[in-house]
Write a structure and sequence with these properties.
It is a single chain. By secondary structure, this protein is of the alpha/beta class. It has four domains: 3-216, HUPs (Rossmann fold, 3-Layer(aba) Sandwich); 242-328, Tyrosyl-Transfer RNA Synthetase, CATH 1.10.240.10; 332-464; 474-549, RNA-binding S4 domain (Structural Genomics Hypothetical 15.5 Kd Protein In mrcA-pckA Intergenic Region, Chain A, Roll). It has 24 helices and 13 strands. It has helices at residues 3-11, 20-30, 48-62, 93-107, 124-127, 132-139, 144-147, 151-159, 165-181, 193-205, 242-249, 257-264, 269-276, 280-294, 305-311, 313-324, 331-358, 364-385, 387-391, 395-412, 415-438, 442-464, 490-496, 503-511; strands at residues 16-18, 34-39, 66-71, 118-122, 185-189, 212-216, 474-477, 488-489, 515-517, 520-521, 528-529, 535-539, 543-549. The strands form three sheets. Strands 1-6-5-2-3-4 form a six-stranded mixed β-sheet, sandwiched between helices. Strands 7-13-12-9-10 form a five-stranded mixed β-sheet. Strands 8-11 form a two-stranded antiparallel sheet. It starts with a helix and ends with a strand.
């Protein structure tokens, strides 16, 4: 791709680019650029608002540049005053670092986790060790007048609201990060423009070439007014289950559809315009289908018309059939391939688990792969049980099932899973060799271990296929808990049976199809039942309780 073509890709959705000439010059001279994104981990969870800028980072990665995820663990202890009308409460280093671990995991849902194009840094590396003399030296490179030009500072000054001295240091600390990292480009939201421009000035003061500044718009949340924020409950979480993400995207205000399509998909402006010219419900379905099926597997999927053709041919044909020709139903073939991928991976995982249990191998890695095996079984069961609906005409169910299938299918081929499997295999070989050296009667040892494993597997597979084991706890329910008609709500039963801590947790579990009654999934949180003969409640895959009347 030429420099001009690269710039056109990188400019999509950008509000400020300072300057395009500088970017062109750097691309022509330097080859791989260093792209900085600084983030204070004030909260552990990311949402689609964060995805906007992470997708821009991914575009730089796809063009071969190195992106630097800078975790502002030290600057979080200052508190970024950007856009605030009062002093922002700082975090402790410990809290910031704890939040950052979750932050980094979620970033990698979109970013390529490859050291050639991804660098993780923490600004406590240099800021925490700076002496007072160095801080004064840094402050001497900028004026009070320039700092007070910042919009939020000037407004607070005019209104008589206090500005703490430590807040005025924040832009300088962020700017010094660019010096320490020798950043070629820094990305940020539009509320970060002043700070990013200070970075250009401070880099020059330290004898470096000024970074290019790129800002992206703040994604407006589901309320249609405020920027997306977890604290305002107007957000769509990056780690929301596909079905929940789909439902939330269907609630995006019509006036924001163009913004969401532009910032969160790879569709061309002409195709977006065509979608928005049609019925808004169709536009919502297309947006929800692309993001739920694609963004969750963002390291491997482009959110474009080709993906839409595959996962939602109904709406594709409604909008694009006359222009590009009709798409044909591909949902079932995609689902078959996804199931094939998942089953192949499950075979590998189960083979490893079988040998590890036979030879008594233990440890964190084994626990990790056991958890993955359970999760994989759940995904496969969900897809298999919904095959009839996918072949039907309900686009909502189709998108929900396909989203989960595509997500897990791509996960099955991720480098992290392959690496984990190889590590487990290596550990197994080592442990098996040690066991064989210490066993007098290999035949006796092997047969005992195999029998124990087969018994455990038999129980697990019975449960996984919907069976109910015999050895489960029994809880008596007082007659006073029943209504005059002799009924009791399943929500209350889940609490009394010890499967849930509260009614709210039980309702959420039912909403997510995580609670079964006598082997059947409960779909109605208002459901009431009789206790005659006793009932069995099941939470997840292997948590059972039998409920009887006292």
């Amino acid at each position: 791709m030429s420099v001009i073509q690269s710039i056109q890709v990188l400019k999509r959705g950008v509000v400020d680019l300072i300057s395009e000439d500088d970017l062109k010059d750097k691309l022509e001279r330097k080859g791989q650029l260093r792209i900085k994104l600084g983030a204070d981990p004030t909260r552990p969870d990311l949402h689609l608002g964060h995805a906007v800028i992470l997708r821009k980072m991914r575009q730089f990665q796809d063009l071969g540049h190195k992106v630097i995820m800078l975790i502002g663990d030290f600057t979080a202890t200052i508190g970024d005053p950007s856009g605030k009308n009062k002093t922002r409460p700082p975090l402790s280093l410990e809290t910031a670092r704890a939040n950052a671990q979750s932050y980094l995991e979620q970033c990698k849902l979109i970013l390529l986790d490859d050291p050639e194009v991804l660098e993780i840094r923490w600004n406590s590396e240099w800021l925490e060790t700076m002496g007072f003399k160095e801080v004064v030296h840094l402050m001497g490179k900028y004026t009070v007048a320039r700092i007070l030009e910042r919009d939020d500072f000037s407004k607070r000054l005019a209104s008589g609201s206090p500005i703490s001295m430590h807040e005025t240091l924040y832009p300088l600390a962020q700017a010094y990060d660019s010096v320490a990292l020798e950043a070629d480009v820094e990305l940020g939201g539009t509320d970060q423009l002043f700070n990013l421009l200070v970075g250009r000035d401070i880099q020059r003061e330290y004898g470096q070439e000024a970074q290019v500044v790129m800002t992206l718009p703040l994604l407006v949340g589901l309320d249609g007014v405020e920027k997306m924020s977890k604290s305002l409950d107007n957000y769509i979480g990056l780690t929301d289950p596909p079905e929940l993400m789909y439902a939330k995207l269907m609630k995006v205000p019509d006036t924001l559809l163009n913004n969401y399509f532009t910032l969160l998909t790879d569709l061309s402006s002409a195709d977006i315009e065509l979608i928005l010219a049609g019925h808004p419900v169709v536009a919502h379905r297309i947006l929800a289908a692309l993001i739920t099926s694609g963004l969750l597997a963002g390291r491997s999927v482009t959110l474009d018309l080709e993906l839409l053709r595959k996962i939602n041919h109904h709406d594709y044909n409604t909008v694009f059939a006359n222009l590009y020709g009709p798409a044909h139903p591909e949902a079932f073939s995609i689902l078959e391939q996804a199931l094939s991928d998942m089953r192949e991976l499950q075979t590998q995982v189960e083979r490893i688990l079988e040998f590890s249990k036979i030879f008594g191998v233990e440890g964190e890695k084994l626990e990790e792969i056991e958890g993955f095996d359970t999760e994989l079984r759940g995904h496969i069961g969900m897809v298999e049980s919904n095959l009839p609906q996918v072949l039907g005409a309900d686009p909502l169910v189709q998108q929900q099932v396909l989203a989960r299938a595509v997500e897990v299918s791509y996960a099955a081929h991720s480098p992290e899973i392959e690496h984990m499997l190889e590590e487990i295999k290596a550990e197994l070989l080592s442990e098996i060799e040690r066991k064989l050296r210490g066993v007098g009667s290999l035949s006796s040892f092997f047969n005992t271990a195999l029998q124990n494993f087969q018994n455990a597997r038999s129980r697990f597979e019975g449960v996984a296929k919907g069976g109910i084991p015999d050895d489960i706890a029994q809880v008596g329910i007082p007659a006073l808990e029943l209504s005059d008609a002799g009924q009791i709500s399943v929500v209350r039963l889940a609490v009394l049976g010890g499967l849930c801590a509260s009614n709210g947790e039980a309702r959420r579990l039912i909403q997510n199809k995580g609670l079964k009654l006598n082997g059947e999934t409960i779909l109605d949180a208002q459901m009431t039942v009789s206790l005659e003969g006793g009932l069995v409640l099941q939470k997840g895959k292997d948590k059972f309780v039998k409920l009887v009347l006292e």
